[in-house]
User: Fold these one by one.
Assistant:
Number 1:
Amino acid sequence: MGRPSQELLKGKKYDTLIAQLVDRLGTDEAAALWVRAERRLDGMLAQSKSLSEGEKLHVEMFVLPTCAIYFELADAFGKDEAFRMVEGYMAEYSANAAKTFKRIVALPGGRGLFMRAFGKVVGLAFGKRQGFENEMHECTPNRIAYDVLACPYHRASAQMGAPEICQFFCRNDEVCYGDLDGIRFVRTGTLAKGASRCDFLIERA
């Protein structure tokens, strides 16, 4: 059985990035960079042991792997290029995730299903136990409005020394929910961009 870092840094979401690395560095050096990212991630995972299980899931599955890759890319290509490369593969990941939501809302009754599921998921997967602080304003089958006042993605990326990558996680929301047929998604600010809160509005259009 491989190390946790090896499991976290594998999967189709990294295929395009790895192909770019092979093209720019060659197979051996690209593989060596990925091993260094795994080792870096091992150290980061050791620092997250004190987190609650719910918060750890978000931080270890998403924030820390992204930080580990970002730092290794920065060492190899410079920080600006590393930012662009991470932005590219995360944009592709978000676009693929958006396809799932588009298929859901296209089903008969899919918009209602999406709204009901979204309302439940906010509390179950993005609540206090997961390290979020939310202020719910409205949660009905047709309209969900709430603010995120504290977020483990924002907190952990800053603690790791890469607050600039948090915006990519925020952008995932915009890509996933911003172009759904019959669903309107509005957000005017995010913690990652310096706002006091991430405001969410999801409603039937």
Number 2:
Amino acid sequence: MIQLHFLLPGLLGRTRWTGEQAEESVRAPGLERLLSRADMQPAPASSVVQLCACFGLVDEESALPVAALTRTIDTGERPDGYWLRLDPVHLRAGAREIMMTNPDDLQLGSEDNQALGLSCAAHLAEYGLTLDFTAVGRWYVHLPETPELFTLGPQNCIDRDIASDLPRGSAGPLWHRYMTELQMLLAGHPVNSAREQRGLPVVNSVWPWGGGVLPQTVPAQGIAYGDDLLLSGLAHWAGWAHAPLPPDLGNMLNGQKAARAVVFFGPDVLPEPQADPRARPGVIERFERDWFVPLEQALKRRKIDTVWLYPGRGLCLRSGIRQAWRLWRRTRPLQRWRAAP
């Protein structure tokens, strides 16, 4: 029997969302029944943590080897030892705080990435550190020993005061210093002057995160669907098959041979409610037709044994044949799920 893990972090989003009038009229009966009849339990709020957990890597985000996993895909090599991401970012000053903008908004091209990376690499080389900036917007540092360093991924820090999100642990102050020195270097960089003239956000800092060492043991075999880089790295590490997202559940099940599957719908497929509220009705309607209604039917007909839905907001909803036939449960409208505290 098939067991599916569906990760849809953009369905409910990361924060409480009351919606707008255009979204309040959306109906998704199949999805609403699935959510309302399922067994609910807490799950990690971070999609990074949840994605890793689906592959058996269970830990706090600061201990997950995200850098090593993504570098596997960026370089085609299996990285040994401890690797840390050191991504270029844009920080903006508010009235009393410093906030990070979405790294996707940088629009960092290969030429800018190369020039900025060369300058930062030359500076870090003075400390015996080698910066790998081959991948645009994803920089890596290899450390000879595992530091006591606790970090958060940039996606968790967007549009909020980063004071409490800075690296912690005994190695934290050292990386604060590296960040400060690189900020000074980047402040007068010719690339940033040119970016300002083009109306683009400047790269004025770097963000350490995702440090860790790849474990040797791998989980039971399965297949991963989705275009996310971390998902690709996890599938490569685990020896799983990896494929793009199918157009609908029927196409996926027709070609499904593995008994376990992880399906990740990233923000490019299912944006968070705040991202584009007016487009949400059409997106949800397509998901209802292509995924949620067929999923409900597949559970009732025992084509799928168990499905775990991760809709965001730190929730996990587990459904099987028993949950699918809980006809007596009152269906909770989707808007109430989004607006719940």
Number 3:
Amino acid sequence: MEGTKTSIDIKAINEKIEKESAFIDLLMMEMGKAIVGQKQLLERLVIALLADGHILLEGVPGLAKTLSITTLSTAVQGSFSRIQFTPDLLPADVTGTMIYNMKDNKFTIKKGPIFANFVLADEINRAPAKVQSALLEAMQEKQITIGDTTFKLDLPFLVMATQNPVEQEGTYTLPEAQVDRFMMKVVIDYPSISEEQLILRQNLNKTFEKVNSVVSLEIIKKAKEAMNEVYMDEKIEKYILDIIFATRYPEKIGLDNLKPLISFGASPRGSISLAKAAKAYAFIKRRGYVIPEDVRAMVYDILRHRIGITYEAEAENITSVDIIKQIVNTVEVP
């Protein structure tokens, strides 16, 4: 009898999710007007938006990183702000500050660019750690404290930080604690020849399609609530935890060769992020339940920045992605 009840519930959830996620195709199509290719990046942005996460984006200049998030903010009628991180930037330039008003003889608060639904932290690794950490409270607590006053940020709130992997001059490596605040680290590559030909034509002929607001923030809020109802079986939960624990204790699943290559494994924030992202991925695929493929689709973006590699791994040119690949291929799939 219990089995029948669950299957009826899943059927009902499935129908609800199919109805609530109807806007996804429209949103992707609208964003596709401005962004040629980069389907994975657009998907990841929508997943982060639904799962209350933030994205760290790595790629060489000119791959439409900035355009992607401005397009998303236009398509969902959200407010957008861009912070260009530079070595002389101060925390107050990000969060805001108190200004003394001589006329009224009192302090007033001037809010910084962090007060927006979509914040682009451009070239985040160009500013020192004190400025990078000014983002931490906002990203984690969804609030900002200026002086004695704490302000709640408008929801949804999504930070997309970009970093350029090729330039090392004048850059500051992001501390592990900060990197862990990002739900995903997405590495984007060059477009294909056919995609780049289309980009070339659009730019030469100035034939850019205008991106319209097709989804309201209200619909996004409803979608986030519906996404929480996506069914995740206990077996899937265990599968996620098995992967996370294998990054900490690889020898327990017979991967003794990985032990000297890993300096630290994924934190509990990694398991929470992987579970949320798998639910969001099922949601954008318009499904009311999570399958192992959802976890496998998200595992690289969720964990690539959460596994510390040792000097030994670096010497052997082994990356965190190689380690994740071995773990995913070894952990038993439910």
